[in-house]
Amino acid sequence: MFLNIGNKFIRSDRIIAILDLETTSISKRTREFLRKCGERGGVVNAAEDIPKSYIICEENGEEKVYISQLASGTLLKRIEG
Fold first, then answer.
1. Residue ranges making up the domain that contains 40
2. Is 4's pLDDT higher than 80?
3. Which residues, 6 or more positions from 20, have their beta carbon under 8 angstroms from its beta carbon?
4. Contact 20, 51 (CB under 8 A)
5. Which listed residue, 18, 23, 30, 64, has the most CB atoms within 10 A of its CB?
6. How does DSSP classify residue 7?
């Protein structure tokens, strides 16, 4: 199954977490995680508007982060629906 996260589709069986960008990026550990992923090219910006959430996936043994303009609650409803 695939999840539409804005202008990109990702495989739902590879999703580790769907997180709210505003509330979770307060943490120093989260910012460090996102920075490290970005440095190694593991961040994909799928947002055409203001980013609201990010999705952590496992692809080829590494974590990949997708930035989405959709709220985390909206993405969770799409998976459950």
1. 2-80
2. yes
3. 52, 53, 71, 72
4. no
5. 18
6. S
